[in-house]
Amino acid sequence: MADDRKRLFQKELEVKFTKEHGDNKMEGGEITDKKVTYYRLGVDQNPRKVEMKKAGQEMAKARGLVGYNPMMHCGGIPLGQRAITPSFVSGTDIMVETDDLHYVNNAAMQQMWDDIRRTTIVGMDMAHETLEKRLGIEVTPETINHYLEVLNHALPGGAVVQEHMVETHPALVDDCYVKIFTGDDELADEIDSQFLIDINKQFPEDQAEALKAAIGKTTWQAAHIPTVVSRTTDGAQTSRWMAMQVGMSFIAAYNMCAGEAAVADLSYAAKHAGVISMGDMLPARRARGPNEPGGISFGHMADIIQTSRVDAEDPAHVALEVVGGGCMLYDQIWLGSYMSGGVGFTQYATAAYTNNILDDNLYYNVDYINDKYDGAANKGTDNKVKATMDVVKDIATESTIYGLENYEKYPTALEDHFGGSQRATMLSAAAGSATALATGNGNAGLSAWYLSMYLHKEAHGRLGFFGYDLQDQCGATNVFSFQSDEGLPVELRGPNYPNYAMNVGHQGGYTAIASAAHAGRGDAWAVNPLIKVCFADDLLPFDFTAPRKEFGRGAIREFEPAGERSLIIPAK
Amino acid sequence: MAYEAQYYPGATSVAENRRKHMSGDVEKLREVSDDDLTLVLGHRAPGSDYPSTHPPLAEMGEPECSIREMVEPTPGAKAGDRVRYVQFVDSMYNAPSTPYFRSYAAAINYRGVDPGTLSGRQVVEARERDMEEIAKFQLETEMTCPALASLRGATVHGHSLRLPEDGIMFDMLDRCRLENGVVIMHKDQVGRAIDKKVDFGKPMSEEEAAKRTTIYRVDNVAFRDDAEVIEWVHTVFEKRTAYGFKPE
């Protein structure tokens, strides 16, 4: 294929590396220059570092105890001896300081995770059957509407049934609510629109039909407990909190006697039957309950991100948004903090969703595939190429070499991804997602991921870090070993899969591969239609259709998070 | 017919250089004195004895063991030396070696070594005098260009950055400098100042670096042009995939 295409990252790198930001004196030069003058101006060349340095000094003065001081590094050598350059968030025109892509500095990132952790899906059908058969209570659309009104009072912490109860202040929990969804259009028509996630409105027609067929006449509650509660407790609290309020709301809405024996049946049916957590519980050695990020399978994560319903015709875009969301959650929050203790992993992750470098590689692959395999990277099911070893080898090799050559031709791209793990994620995510797009097969994509790692290592004589390399060099062996303890389709693997449990820089890419296979086919979901519909909800504070834009808004401090406590904190 | 080791496939100069590094058949380009080496490694004062972690093996009364009889201890192990490290960083811009090829060279050609490979750096741990032998070998031969490779026990950042205007690999701690046309180290590998400047000689010219490098680059020898190497990687990939294949 002719190599005369305009690289997506060129414009961003020209701004990033040849313009002055703050006091970095970067003006001039070409992004293809192999040599440059490093002014060694330290932290003072970067506005955010300057702000942080000043805050550290003020803090030390106020509390009489030293704190942040960038001159501590290596006994007084300032951080940022080379220019610390800001980054564009891929797919947007938002330029950010990279410090602001650390989740501690970014309210949108915190909200994305909050919105996932505080979500649970609870089936209504068994509770309704229990009400009707065990208690002889008639359930109608009207009673369901009434119940939902009660639950939207109770779920945030309003009291029902019991008197003289303490309650939560509604303004602190205004992000907490429940809606329902169903595959039954007739029932949906009867539900008050404020309570309904309307599949017909939220999804393209073909996706809506597929989702309704999968969900059938079942009915599900998409519940989100208060952000502040979730932050104070943990992911396992989500279903507990929901269960408590569900029980109370049924009793109140259907005028039941709280002491009668049949309520026990209802309680089980309403609270525990058909509960779907976003993440599975982790084993005791990792000490996490359900709804914590280590238990969220790649397929679930792919379904949580909603780009596929708003830009279905561009499956590569879908995969790239999933990369952003996946890298942030798995690398920055799960591996970067829960598993490792914090600080450092953010930069692995941001490489995948900044400066359009991965985007460029993947869209190159789309062109390559469409040229060679007759449009196989476009959305569709009858245009896919068969997932054979030859196809995996071809796409992964072309994709990887294209990406490697970009690092060789554009020294600023190499400088942007200055760690091998960043480069390896980029190249493999592009190869894997492209192969998944072309074949509609996530495992073929995963296979391409590993081949890309081998090619990268062989070309440059280096790859990522110690543990990173190990897992990628044995990874090909576990792609097609289909026993639950040995291997799974990529959709069902998750961050706790044995080889991935400490695999920084990978999990967002794996999620993208799972997503790409289905987005490429035009599927309405990757692994769970209920999760896909649950997050098709515009009322959530975080916009799951555009995670990268949201991270950018968080970085430039435009994002409004939920769960803030200023109402109960003395005003300064 | 005597077996002849085949170290690496490929028909390009990069493949040939890789074969040379792995076989240890590399050209010596410079001299580094023992004292200079000790200074830049920074583990002990030049001229001092090797600190030991145990008495010499000969004094320890080792138990009977057929393996111990078969395997001759390395000099460092025999003397009871501490385990120490040497760590190199190799630029992406045609540095002669790369982390994996430094590891292969150490593992194939030396005993008692523990090589570690990362994206920007490569560490070898071994008994101190054994480690020094490997470090000296690498520093004195074509495995190293003083401008495009350097000793860095700490802050390894720089291998993938553009080269500064004088062509020396970026080093945040400024351990290496170009002075009067030669590369000197005035700090040890972790960035502590040392008593004298250690001279590593002239940088390779761009042409020489391109000729001696073991990295494929599109502006020198492109990876896609070494078809045999790519085919070989594909073979490794296919075999590893098939090994784990379990269709039922």
TrEMBL record, chain A:
Recorded metabolic or biological pathway in which this protein acts: One-carbon metabolism; methyl-coenzyme M reduction; methane from methyl-coenzyme M: step 1/1
InterPro entries, per database record: Me_CoM_Rdtase_asu, Me_CoM_Rdtase_asu/bsu_C, Me_CoM_Rdtase_asu_C, Me_CoM_Rdtase_asu_N, Me_CoM_Rdtase_asu_N_sub1, Me_CoM_Rdtase_asu_N_sub2, Me_CoM_Rdtase_Fd-like_fold
SUPFAM superfamilies given in the database record: Methyl-coenzyme M reductase alpha and beta chain C-terminal domain, Methyl-coenzyme M reductase subunits
Residue ranges of every copy of the Methyl-coenzyme M reductase alpha subunit C-terminal domain listed in the record: 331-463
Cofactor(s) named in the record: coenzyme F430
Catalysed reaction equations from the record: coenzyme B + methyl-coenzyme M = methane + coenzyme M-coenzyme B heterodisulfide
Cofactor binding: number and manner: Binds 2 coenzyme F430 non-covalently per MCR complex. Coenzyme F430 is a yellow nickel porphinoid. Methyl-coenzyme-M reductase is activated when the enzyme-bound coenzyme F430 is reduced to the Ni(I) oxidation state.
Molecular-function annotations in GO: coenzyme-B sulfoethylthiotransferase activity
Listed EC numbers: 2.8.4.1
Function: Component of the methyl-coenzyme M reductase (MCR) I that catalyzes the reductive cleavage of methyl-coenzyme M (CoM-S-CH3 or 2-(methylthio)ethanesulfonate) using coenzyme B (CoB or 7-mercaptoheptanoylthreonine phosphate) as reductant which results in the production of methane and the mixed heterodisulfide of CoB and CoM (CoM-S-S-CoB). This is the final step in methanogenesis.
Family: Belongs to the methyl-coenzyme M reductase alpha subunit family.
Protein name as annotated: Methyl-coenzyme M reductase subunit alpha
Species name: Methanococcoides cohabitans
Phylogenetic lineage: Archaea, Methanobacteriati, Methanobacteriota, Stenosarchaea group, Methanomicrobia
Automatic annotation (TrEMBL), chain B:
A Pfam family this chain is assigned to: MCR_gamma
GO molecular function, one term: coenzyme-B sulfoethylthiotransferase activity
Reaction catalysed by this enzyme: coenzyme B + methyl-coenzyme M = methane + coenzyme M-coenzyme B heterodisulfide
Protein's UniProt keywords contain Transferase: yes
Enzyme class: transferase
Pathway: One-carbon metabolism; methyl-coenzyme M reduction; methane from methyl-coenzyme M: step 1/1
Cofactors (names): coenzyme F430
EC number in record: 2.8.4.1
Keywords associated with the record: Methanogenesis, Transferase
InterPro entries: Me_CoM_Rdtase_Fd-like_fold, Me_CoM_Rdtase_gsu, Me_CoM_Rdtase_gsu_sf
Superkingdom classification of source: Archaea
Sequence similarity: Belongs to the methyl-coenzyme M reductase gamma subunit family.
Subunit description: MCR is a hexamer of two alpha, two beta, and two gamma chains, forming a dimer of heterotrimers.
Protein name: Methyl-coenzyme M reductase subunit gamma
Native source organism of the sequence: Methanococcoides cohabitans
